[in-house]
Amino acid sequence: MDYKIIDFQKHGDDRGMLVALEEEKEIPFKIKRVYYMYDTLSGVRRGYHAHKKLKQILICIHGYCQIHLDNGDETIEITLDKPYQGLYIENNIWREMYNFSSDAVLMVLASEIYDEADYIRNYQDFLDFIGKKDKNE
Ligand code: TYD
User: Which of 3, 35, 67, 96 could bond to 47 as cystine, CB 3.0-4.6 Å?
Assistant: First the structure.
């Protein structure tokens, strides 16, 4: 599965903690867009898409949430609960986000600007796009 959990360097001292992220250093692409989700309602599951081209890093900078990844062969559940940890997700991976704590702030650094044409929002279309058969068939 084309994902990676990256522990960013923490610059801590007796005043507290700081994490610095630079494109093409800690972040393995040029950052074209930053967005974040907050006040996600209890029980909400969102995402339900893959990207044809876009790569991204998810950082739960406050609270916690869980991420479901699926590459058509296998799935994995990942908990993000550390502000110094990033989840790098390659293109062509189906993702769903769930179990948000009420105080969760999920920040996303993306390699592309927002483009609806880059989204695959139907799971069967995703399997077709990557040339896989449905596991349940
Ligand atoms: P949506 O794609 O439904 O979020 P998710 O797939 O993560 O559950 O996005 C919610 C709304 O925000 C939708 O109307 C599109 C808009 N949006 C932007 O305008 N720009 C962006 O960069 C993103 C990610 C979403």
Answer: 96
| Predicted confidence (pLDDT) at residue 135 exceeds the cutoff of 70 | no
Average pLDDT over residues 57-84: 98
Of the candidates 86, 108, 106, 95, which has an alpha carbon nearest to the alpha carbon of residue 39?
Answer: 106
Q: What is the mean pLDDT of residues 55-83?
A: 98
127 C-alpha to center of ligand 1: Å? 22
Distance, CA of 101 to CA of 41 (rounded, Å)? 9
Centre of ligand 1 to C-alpha 116, Å, is: 9
CATH number of the 3-8+21-130 domain? 2.60.120.10
Identify the residues whose C-beta falls under 6 Å from ligand 1.
33, 35, 46-47, 49, 114
In the annotation, is 62 catalytic?
no
